[in-house]
Amino acid sequence: MILPIYVYGQPILRKVAIDIEQDNYPNLQELINNMFETMYHADGVGLAAPQVGLNDRIFVVDLSVMGDEVPEMKGFKKTFINPHIIERTGDLKEVEEGCLSIPGIHEKVPREERIRIQYIDENLESQDEEYVGFTARCIQHEYDHLDGVMFVDKISPLRKQLVKSKLTAMTKGKVSCSYKVKTLK
User: Fold this and answer.
1) Torsion sign over Cα 112, 114, 81, 40
2) What is the tens place of the pLDDT at every residue in 60-97?
3) DSSP string for 147-169
4) Is residue 50 exposed (0-12), middle (13-18) or buried (19+ Cβ within 10 Å)?
């Protein structure tokens, strides 16, 4: 089922998500399926639970669409349940990012090149993995959503000032995109 994506200004996007108790989440697989379906419908490569109005510590990523250009991304489709980044290393690199919850805005965001993350996968097995480059960037972007952080929080003060009016418009329900959204108004 395609869920509405919550847009900048929604309070849920600023909350710190809570770890999921798998025993108390009988519809976990349905949620995972709905998140992937919603993400694909919106042409995204990642989606976190707060973006669909849930205060749960889970996100999905599918980078396989980039597999032709970057072979290591071929078949990269994962669910991260209760993730915790243990380590961030490497130089900060600025790369342009966008977000389904901030449609129409793309800005350069500084992020570390390498991460180590612990999480539970879709088979409810514990994982401890390292990622580098674009994969690490995507995971950090989605992970930030679980901590109530959005990519515009990480851009330079000048760039923040330049996008401020667009962000203010979003908080007033003025959003134009091709997928279903939930705004404040």
Assistant:
1) positive
2) 999 998 878 877 788 899 999 999 999 999 999 999 99
3) TT--GGGGS-HHHHHHHHHHHHH
4) buried
Render pLDDT for 150-179 as a digit per residue (tens, 0 to 9): 999 999 999 999 999 999 999 999 999 999
CA distance linking residue 52 with residue 182, whole number of Å? 9
Q: Where are the domains of the chain?
A: 5-182
Residues 91-114, mean pLDDT to the nearest whole number: 96
H/E segment holding residue 145 = helix 133-146
Decide if 142 is catalytic.
Answer: yes
Phi first, then psi: give them for residue 153, nearest 5 degrees.
-75, -20
Q: Which CATH number fits domain 5-182: 3.40.640.10, 3.30.70.240, 3.90.45.10, 3.90.1150.10?
A: 3.90.45.10
Catalytic residue among 30, 94, 107, 142: 142
Could you tell me which of 124, 143, 121, 120 has the C-alpha nearest to residue 51?
143
pLDDT digits (tens, 9 = 90+) for 11-57: 999 999 999 987 778 899 999 999 999 999 999 999 999 999 999 99
Give the integer Cα–Cα distance in Å for 18 and 174.
Answer: 30
Contact status, residue 166 vs residue 174, Cβ threshold 8 Å:
no
First to last CA, the chain: 23
